[in-house]
Write a structure and sequence with these properties.
The protein is α+β, with helices and mostly antiparallel strands. It is built from 20 helices and 46 strands. Residues 253-257, 269-282, 566-586, 681-720 and 872-886 have low confidence and may be disordered.
Length: 1171
């Protein structure tokens, strides 16, 4: 890129046309391999290039047209036309200029001296000079000595700029920046000579209304001697990330493609052209001079390519190319918008970020899309550390002490539910100022002994009443006054014993009311004064012992004591806690958090927040979160905006049009084929319909199907009709029955001879489309319309299987192996794109959500995740390897598999099944069809004939525990169980070869036991890692089987109940009858059914004669353990209305692949709250 062309481009972007750009240079500017604008604006980039090559610029105006001039120095500066200028003293002593004087009246000189110098090194990285590196974040470096000397001189001149400046004040309007003039005479330290103006200012003063003639004008020009070269100081360089993205720009068109020349050099493309072929985007080999073979790779760049670059020594002139940047669908982590960040990000949503933003540097460590993160914030005004665990628990353990200290401000602990502070010995709250306990409803303080002390005052304030109930004594002691007042009521004191009121003898004891009083003075005298009537009456007698004195003319009124006034007590100030831990009583922050139920953030959609005062805030979520700062305190309404209905309607119409065009297209082709068939004789027509005639009488040529259905129908031993299944799937799609579709597709996958990836992808589309009634009806009806549009001969040949192919081709948007001949339709791409856009829009429409909130409370918004997963239900371990020759009688083999499948079933269930032979093939029948479900022998395994689940489980979150994070002991245990399972598999293979039925039955039993133990051990490892300190509870019933019970039960340290389902090998979630409906493992109905079975069994055990027998100590202990477990279960049920998730239902799986255990433990947290 030529430097002059780059500067021209920047000036043109500022609004100057090419004819208004004047170059006054004596040599050509260099052409660079690349010119990098490194995270800087156009002006900074422009200034940096001028400073690097020793250029300056100014503006000139000719014939009212302004131009910009770029020159090598001020010697190219034009002189003003006024000629020689002079400076007159401000006292007016130069009297020859009486009128019409144009010049300067004030002059000020400034001389500066600068120590040190500037130096440019050749390829200096890292810097050799600490001072220069600290000044501009890098030490300038040149490519060769000549450039080094030139740039050093330019830098020195720039830093010495202004050492001799003269400021002139006068009325010379032409003395603008960039112009030169001659100055006559000598005044002060400014000698006469030629000067160049580097800064100028024109000052006009307009007259006022009272004195419109009071108009003034003067000019101010800062000049330097014309003989001193002027250079521009380079702009301050900001620190840049280690790697950041850049966009390739071209300055003009060129049709020369990148290529290797005759000398083996890669001819770089200086100017890019939009017609460059797409193929050059790939890495291209290049060879160095003198080498015959390529020695490296070159990144061929095109206009608007996004690349990753870095700057050695933070110098944009020493940039290097790493490769291509991420694309639009996966944008770069660091961009020009966050260029102060250095980010390390992994695929597992783990992120470490160092942000060097001035005044607010911080470090972020996060996972799960920011739901769990740690922020070390270095805000110079308000630094803080923010630690968030938005999913799951946060555990802090220490072998000795844990100290939370705050030197200047406060420590706040905030929770939306229950806060428990527990200590085995002593719990102390200490504050040098105040301790505030603030509860919206009740505040309960309970202890064996409560001591309340204060060095000054103790205040107890209640809004309505104050009650003190003491079983023993109440003692009130005051060194001065004891005051009890009730301005609106009275005091009532009741006692079954004595009531004693005793004074110290240093003052009077007075009872007064309504102008009358009874007074006992310090001398022991008793004065009784009645304002009206004094009555002394004893029921038996009234006795006066001693002399009695009557003062008839004494005082006429009682000395009423004044009622003391108790000062009003201010209410406790309620604190507002923000997310970063700062207390706020004014402006607030609204934190929006919108996530799916499995913890993944929703898409980056728009939001709108409307405050009570009508103020509106809008923005877009980033990874499911947004922060709105400086909002007024109060209530608000937030609306998440995913997709509007109008766009959905438009996309539906687009899909309908494309599908109609496909039907019309095939119907037109079918008409041609039907006419050709009609022209044939009857014999030939018979051959055509029987398939003997060549396929494809029209332009598509080959059969519409691709053989996907053949994978199902052609499987040996399969008894599954894919055509009938497809009709059922389309019926389920029309009614929106997702679970029924899932079951049918799982059955197709389990029956296929090899994996069909397109089914998984298609099911994801169908689940979303099923939510739109009009769209799902449109898609469900299309296969039949498309099939009926074919000719009769094609319908005969493709009956049953075509619908399956069409459904997969559309629902996968025409990708992968499921693309069939239907893709040859001229409208197929249009239809798939319309369906893809409609699927995405429908998915976004689910995100539309509006709720109310308050700035005083943080609310997390959760959306149930649509389960688009579909599992391959093949049980590989039950299938004999292809290399094993089966010598066991088929009926005996099925009976062994059936016995193993029903090993935990009750006897009446086992006895209901029998194995028979039909046409030499085994099948399973039932004696009573109402007692149990139908079973089938399919592909070497026993499966339910119907996968119908009335109450499926719902998944809240899926987790993985990598084996790398396990302890050595845990790893060793898993390896031992893996070996144990492989031994059982080897025994099975040997039994199949030998035909020994007893050995085969024992081998299947050992395989099942090994898989179960593998799952149990994985569950124990998961609990130990995620719930340390959890106490095991009894889960096993007092029988040998495993039906009707959970695999493991635990009580966590915070009192929650863990229900664990453990699966090993390729076992999947089972089911059981819960009342009249079948419930899947992991559902609330399944869990309640199991606990009811525990309660039933406990009742039976207590009624057993062995219970309470001293000789049956083990039995009694097991019953007590079971009873204790049910007590914990009932306690957890009672807490459901008070805390979140008192019961956690978790499925743990240790899956295997062939004979190897997979490298992670899978954990599924089930949602049992809203089922």
């Amino acid at each position: 890129a030529n430097v002059q062309s780059v500067l021209n481009k920047l000036i043109q972007k500022a609004g100057y046309s090419q004819d208004r750009i004047k170059w006054r240079v004596t040599k050509d500017l260099p052409t660079l391999p690349q010119c990098v604008q490194a995270l800087e604006n156009d002006y900074t980039f422009f200034t940096r290039l001028l400073a690097k090559y020793g250029l300056i610029y100014w503006f000139e105006c000719h014939d009212f047209i302004e131009s910009i001039v770029i020159a090598e120095g001020n010697l190219a500066s034009p002189y003003i036309e006024r000629g020689l200028l002079s400076v007159t003293d401000k006292d007016g002593l130069v009297h020859e200029h009486k009128t019409g004087f144009v010049g300067f009246t004030q002059c000020q000189s400034r001389h500066r001296f600068r120590m040190g110098g500037s130096q440019v090194h050749v390829n200096a990285h890292p810097p050799t000079s600490v001072s220069s590196a600290q000044r501009s974040y890098f030490e300038p470096a040149a490519q060769n000595p000549a450039e080094q000397f030139e740039r050093t001189g330019n830098l020195e001149l720039a830093y010495q700029q202004g050492k001799n400046e003269v400021t002139l004040v006068g009325n010379v309007a032409e003395a603008n920046a960039g112009y030169s003039f001659s100055l006559n005479g000598k005044l002060g330290t400014a000698k006469g000579g030629d000067y160049t103006c580097i800064r100028s200012k024109q000052v006009y003063k307009q007259g006022s209304a009272n004195d419109p003639k009071q108009v003034a004008y003067h000019s101010e020009s800062v000049c330097v001697p014309r003989g001193e070269p002027i250079r521009i100081a380079p702009p301050e360089h900001s620190p840049k990330p280690m790697v950041f993205t850049a966009t390739v720009r071209s300055l003009s068109g060129s049709k020369a493609n990148p290529h290797l020349d005759t000398q083996g050099q890669y001819a770089t493309q200086v100017h890019f052209d939009s017609q460059v072929t797409e193929s050059v985007k790939r890495l291209t080999q290049y060879a160095c001079r003198g080498q015959k073979q390529p020695t490296g790779l070159h990144f061929p760049l095109l206009p608007d390519s996004n690349v990753l670059i870095g700057c050695m020594n933070n110098d944009p002139d020493q940039s290097y190319l790493l490769g291509f940047a991420l694309n639009d669908t996966q944008p770069s982590v660091v961009t020009s918008a966050n260029n102060t960040q250095n980010v390390l990000c992994s695929r597992g949503q783990n992120l470490l970020m160092f942000d060097d933003t001035p005044n607010t540097p911080h470090i972020v460590l996060q996972t799960l899309a920011g739901n769990q993160h740690l922020v070390l914030h270095g805000d110079k005004k308000q630094p803080y550390i923010h630690w968030l665990a938005q999913l799951g628990a946060m555990n802090i353990f220490a072998a000795k002490d844990i100290q939370l200290g705050s030197v200047k401000s406060a420590i706040r602990l905030l929770t939306n539910k229950t806060f428990i502070a527990s200590a085995k010995q002593q719990l102390a709250l200490e504050s040098k100022k105040s301790v505030i306990a603030d509860a919206a409803t009740n505040l309960d303080v309970t202890a064996n002994q409560i001591g309340v002390s204060a060095k000054q005052n103790i205040t107890l304030k209640a809004g309505r009443s104050h009650r003190s109930v003491i079983q023993s004594d109440i003692k009130l002691k005051a060194d001065n006054n004891l005051t009890i007042t009730a301005p609106a009521g009275s005091q009532i004191i009741q006692s079954q014993g004595n009531i004693t009121i005793k004074g110290s003898g240093s003052g009077n004891l007075t009872l007064a009311n309504g102008g009358s009083e009874i007074s006992i003075d310090s001398s022991g005298n008793v004065n009784i004064f009645a304002d009206k009537l004094l009555t002394l009456k004893g029921k038996a007698m009234t006795v006066f012992d001693g002399s009695m004195e009557q003062d008839i003319g004494g005082k006429q009124s009682a000395t009423m004591p004044s009622v003391p006034q108790i000062a009003q007590i201010a209410a406790n100030q309620r604190l507002s806690l923000t997310a970063d831990g700062a207390a706020s009583l004014a402006d607030k922050t609204i934190d929006l958090s919108y996530f799916y139920s499995d913890g993944t953030p929703v898409e980056d959609i728009d939001y709108e927040v409307v405050m009570d005062n009508g103020q509106i805030y809008t923005g877009q979520l980033s990874r499911g979160t947004a922060e709105i700062i400086d909002v007024p305190a109060g209530n608000y309404t937030v609306s998440y905006i995913g997709e509007d209905e109008e766009k959905i309607i438009s996309l539906r119409q687009e899909l309908r049009t494309a599908l109609d065009q496909m039907v019309a297209e095939i119907r037109k082709q079918a008409d041609i084929q039907e006419r050709l068939i009609d022209d044939e004789n009857l014999g030939m027509q018979g051959l055509i319909y029987s398939g003997a005639f060549l396929y494809g009488l029209y332009q598509q040529g080959e059969s519409i199907v691709t053989g996907v259905a053949d994978l199902v129908e052609g499987t040996a031993g399969a008894i599954y009709d894919v055509g009938a299944a497809t009709f059922r799937i389309l019926g389920h799609l029309a009614t929106g029955d997702v679970e029924a579709m899932r079951a049918e597709l799982q059955q197709i996958m389990s029956t296929a001879s090899e994996s069909i990836n397109g089914i998984v992808e298609a099911f994801e589309t169908l689940v979303i489309i099923a939510e739109d009634e009009e769209a799902r009806t449109l898609l469900a009806n299309f296969p039949a319309r498309y099939f009926n549009a074919h000719s009769s001969v094609e319908r005969t040949r493709m009956a049953g299987r075509l619908s399956f192919e069409i459904l997969l081709a559309l629902a996968t948007f025409g990708s992968g192996a499921v693309v069939s001949a239907i893709a040859k339709s001229n409208y197929f791409v249009k239809a798939t794109r319309a369906l893809e856009k409609l699927t995405q829009a429908t998915k976004l429409k689910r995100l539309n959500y509006t709720r109310s909130g308050t700035t005083e409370k943080v609310q997390l918004d959760r959306l149930p995740k649509v389960e688009t997963d579909i599992d391959d239900v093949k049980r590989i371990e039950s299938v004999a390897p292809a290399s094993v020759a089966l010598k066991v009688n088929p009926r005996t083999h099925v009976q062994i598999l059936l016995d193993d499948f029903l090993s935990d079933a009750p006897e009446h269930i086992k006895n209901n099944y029998r194995v028979a032979l039909r046409d030499g093939k085994p099948y399973i029948t039932r004696r009573n069809q109402t007692v149990s479900d139908q079973l089938q022998y399919v592909d070497g395994q026993i499966v339910f004939a119907s996968n119908r689940i009335d109450t499926p489980n719902k998944v809240l979150q899926r987790l993985k525990v990598d084996h790398k994070s396990l302890t050595p002991a845990a790893k060793q245990k898993l390896r031992a169980l893996e070996a144990q399972r492989n031994q059982a598999i080897a025994k099975r293979d040997a039994a199949l070869k030998s035909g020994n039925a007893e050995h085969l039955k024992a081998a299947y039993k050992d395989m099942r036991a090994a898989s179960e133990e593998l799952g149990e051990e994985a569950a124990r490892i998961f609990v130990e890692q995620n719930y340390p300190g959890a106490t095991p509870l009894r889960s096993k019933l007092l029988t040998d089987g495993k039906q009707g019970q959970f695999d493991q039960l635990y009580q966590t340290e915070d009192g929650r109940l863990l229900v664990i389902e453990a699966k090993g090998g390729s076992a999947t979630w089972g089911s059981r009858m819960a009342g009249t409906k079948r419930a899947q493992q992991g559902s609330r109905a399944y869990m309640d059914s199991i606990f009811k079975n525990y309660e039933k069994k406990l009742t039976e055990y207590i009624a057993d004669p062995k219970y309470g027998d001293p000789n049956e100590a083990k039995f009694n202990e097991q019953v007590k353990e079971l009873s204790k477990m049910l007590d914990e279960y009932e306690s957890a049920i009672e807490m459901e209305d008070f805390i979140d998730n008192p019961i956690e239902y978790i499925g743990v799986q240790q899956k295997v692949s062939g004979t190897e255990v997979k490298g992670a433990i899978d954990a599924t947290i089930f949602d049992i709250k809203n089922i």
